[in-house]
Amino acid sequence: METRRKADARRPTLPEKPETTIRVQTYGSPCGELLLGSFGESLCLCDWRNERHRGFVDRRVQRLLRARFIEAPSPLLDEAARQLDEYFAGYRRTFDIPLSFAGTEFQKTVWRTLLAIPFGATVSYGELARRIGQPKAVRAVANANGANPLSIFVPCHRVIGSDRSLTGYGGGLAAKRWLLELESEPLLPFRDTFVK
Q1: Which of 32, 39, 107, 120 has its CA 20 to 30 A from that of 13?
Q2: By the 8 A CB rule, do 182 and 88 touch?
Q3: How far is residue 6's CA from residue 160's CA, in Å, rounded to a whole number?
Q4: Reduced to 3 states, what is the DSSP secondary structure of residue 94?
């Protein structure tokens, strides 16, 4: 028996099986249905159900993460839904949930830069291109913005036209307007408790 234990201790341990599933569930927001997806311990998807490129986004996320969708709950999805509830109720300005980016290196750079746009602020596509150090890449930045699979958590709705007009948005312009109006409300409940 002792010899068997020693032999087992010398055996190399195999790496854990890589994650092969993305758990998904629907979230009903006040401005449209979202599809939430968790991959391991991070959120990899928060995208509009009525997204024009829904199938393309889903296939890209699954391909890059080498995983498939299954409709199943997860603690991370519950936490994402809770934080969205707080955001839509006006009690949350930022999110603190781990994110997993499924995209090219350029797209990831743009998405990380989106995270730095503060609640209630907007920037133009040109400004976003300047912030990543590629001022001539406005069209590429706009395409990367449109490919963002983590709407709201990665606030692509805060990017507008250089003339301050609302431009394309995966959830539709009505949803984009709704989100920007939510963030521009001067007296959200949480603000009253901190400003004296």
Answers
A1: 39
A2: yes
A3: 64
A4: coil
* Contact criterion met (CB below 8 Å) for 158 and 164: no
Determine the pLDDT at residue 18. Answer: 56
156 given a catalytic annotation: yes
Question: What's the Cα-to-Cα distance from 195 to each of 119, 122, 192, rounded to whole Å?
Answer: 17, 23, 6
Residue partners of 91: CB distance under 8 A and separation at least 6: 188, 189, 190
Q: 177-186: long-range contacts (C-beta < 8 A, 24 or more apart)?
A: 178/30, 178/31, 179/31, 179/152, 180/122, 182/88, 182/90, 183/119, 183/120, 183/158, 184/120, 185/90
Report pTM: 0.82
71 and 21 Cβ atoms separated by less than 8 Å: no
The catalytically annotated residue of 31, 44, 46, 156 is: 156
User: What token pair was written down for 28?
Assistant: 């009903």
* Residues present in the chain in total: 196
Whether residue 5 has pLDDT greater than 50: no
Nearest to 34 by CA among 43, 42, 45: 45
Kindly calculate the radius of gyration of the chain based on its CA atoms and give it in whole angstroms. Answer: 20
pLDDT in tens, 10-22: 444 433 445 789 9
Q: How far is CA 13 from CA 1, 8, 9, 138, in A?
A: 20, 9, 9, 48
